[in-house]
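Exercise: predict the fold of this chain.
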Amino acid sequence: MRAWGVFCTLWNLPLALWGMGEEEVTKAQARKAEWQLLAFCVWLHTDGYASSTCINYVGAVKDWHQSATRMPAAYWGLALYRMPTLFRAIKRRNPAKIRDKRPWEFEYSLAVVKGWRVGGQWNFGEGEAGHLRMVTWTVICVAFEQLMRLAELVTTKPPSVSMRRPLKWVDVEYEDAAGNTLGYDRVGRPVGAPVRAKMREPPSKTRPGGGWLILPFPEGWQEGESATAAGPMVWHMQRTAPVPREHAKEVPLFGMKAWSSSHPRVVQISQHKFVSVMHQLCNGASPVIRYKDGGNLGLHCFRVGGANRLIDIGASAPQVMAAGRWMGDCWILYARRQRAVLDELTCRMSAVGKASLKRRR
């Protein structure tokens, strides 16, 4: 709807396709509304949006118009015949990208931590560049461990549902072994002995109300050591670049810059900046993470990797569904490994089959 508002403002067009009253919609009004939707779809397509996104946006505008005016075209016996023709045309011109949703493997995390160790502890450097690397790595840990979509943690070009309520500093709480909520010092650093963190779950299409995510701390953890666990990383980030509690409701949890009294305005890290810094982390890993099709590590690579990691360590199907907050069996699409792994499994299946055959003989 933000894109629709920009389009209508740019071309001085009304937001509503036809009137807000109960008057009958004429054929001329329907043709004018269809031309407006056609132009909106072409405008999106020429701006680089995928064909599927253009179609979804047009559908969202039609749904909004129906709910706002309570006057759907079907009520008046009208049909927008030219829209399907345009959809087929843009699909042929820009077909959907068929790509292997390559997962972020846990071995990648270990390689990054190993490569960025300084004096026995991981260190992403000082200054603005170091802060960005720390924030990016924290996002990776949270997304991988909690099976989250990247769009729920960073600002993406296509607006996501989570942008309605992006994570702020106030959306994280820490608890000790007795279940007591820990506090913060005068500059905004969390204090105490945490055993778990509670983070508000951003809203999504399937869970518009969100919820709470539990980020446990490994037993016997020490700051500067548990660099692959999401809870300790969020704790370290909030202690390294604290935000006063009076500003906790305003500052994004994963900001592009560290908060300071001289520059209190902080925006959420963008997808472009995140991907750029993620490549820096991979290039500094040991061994260096070199993936020839690195562009295929998309917005869901951490969610895919987290689901596969759970399966690797023996999680059951209900546990994977609960961890990823899936309400159906679509999680099975995420439980995919690389071709090399499948080849190995195929060889093992064949070996078992031959052994069974010998026993029968």
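Check your answer against the key: Residues 2-93 form one domain.
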